[in-house]
Design goal:
It contains nine helices and 14 strands. By secondary structure, it is α/β, with parallel strands linked by helices. The chain has one domain (2-274): Ribonuclease Z/Hydroxyacylglutathione hydrolase-like (Metallo-beta-lactamase, Chain A), CATH 3.60.15.10. α8 (222-232) packs parallel to α9 (249-260).
Length: 275
């Protein structure tokens, strides 16, 4: 099993860190987790065609995690995808996908009629919404989904990917919560979001003290992440969805190492990790 970090950024634009997205792949299976800004370009960089993706999993419906959904679908058609899409996501995903497809219906119809391609299967989408927890098997991958705490977002999820006795845990966006400790136990790799304490300063009314407090409050601060990783007993901790995207790497590593007992891996776009 291999994890590829396609995008490690956040809503604020950084040309070195695209929107949140990951690829989990084996020799038989390719699954996307989230589809932030720039996902199709990153897939092209690693020579993975959107026509070959088996399924898309969405952690939650914040814009930075789903903004390139239609781009993913339309580009797969242009990449000769001849099979339907299956999208797994939280409650509300069916409505969201329907609205996105309807927004581009006229343009899509024009393309279909004029370009006369042999298949429109890429535009057929099955959406399956999560319960509070459950298991899904796709080819040789077993995926466990579980709720995390990203309130006021009502429905947010993390995932375990299991393959040949190896375990990858993806936190999704979350404040510290019991389910990360529970489902992340003994993970070979824990891929976790982080809000980096001390890097964002109050500047004006667009970044007030209240703004900083609220943003920090529904993410996992760096001051606590090492403790969480220690409690999960994970072998490797990989950081993603870095808020902010520019920070003191040496200081961040030390903050987490002091509690975790070993250095985290600071994720960057196109990083590949064998599991």
């Amino acid at each position: 099993m291999e994890l590829v970090l396609l995008g490690t950024g956040c809503p604020k634009v950084d040309y070195k860190r695209f929107g949140p997205s990951n690829l989990v792949q084996t020799k038989k299976t390719k699954i996307l987790v989230d589809c932030g800004s720039g996902i199709t370009q990153r897939l092209d960089q690693i020579k993975v065609s959107t026509s070959d993706i088996d399924a898309l999993f969405l952690t939650h419906l914040h814009s930075d995690h789903v903004v390139d959904l239609y781009q993913l679908i339309i580009s797969s058609w242009h990449s000769y995808r001849i099979k339907p899409w299956t999208i797994y996501g939280p409650k509300g995903t069916k409505k969201f996908v329907k609205n996105i497809m309807n927004a581009w219906k006229d343009e899509r119809t024009q393309r279909i009629n004029y370009e006369a391609r042999s298949s429109t299967q890429a535009f057929k989408i099955t959406v399956k919404e999560f319960n509070s927890k459950g298991n899904i098997r796709i080819k040789d991958l077993k995926i466990t989904y579980f709720e995390v705490d990203h309130k006021p977002v009502k429905h947010a999820f993390g995932f375990n990917f299991l393959h040949k006795n190896k375990k990858l845990t993806i936190s999704g966006d979350t404040r510290p919560c019991e389910n990360i400790m529970k489902y992340g136990q003994n993970a070979d790799v824990l891929l976790h979001e982080v809000f980096i304490d001390g890097e964002l300063k109050e500047t004006n009314k667009m970044r007030s003290r209240r703004t900083l407090h609220n943003v920090r409050s529904y993410h996992t601060p760096s001051s606590l992440l090492g403790k969480i990783a220690k409690l999960t007993n994970c072998k490797k901790l990989v950081l993603t969805h870095l808020v902010p995207t520019k920070f003191n790497e040496k200081k961040l590593k030390k903050t987490i190492r002091d509690d975790f007992g070993k250095n985290p891996i600071i994720g960057y776009d196109l990083l590949k990790i064998k599991i």
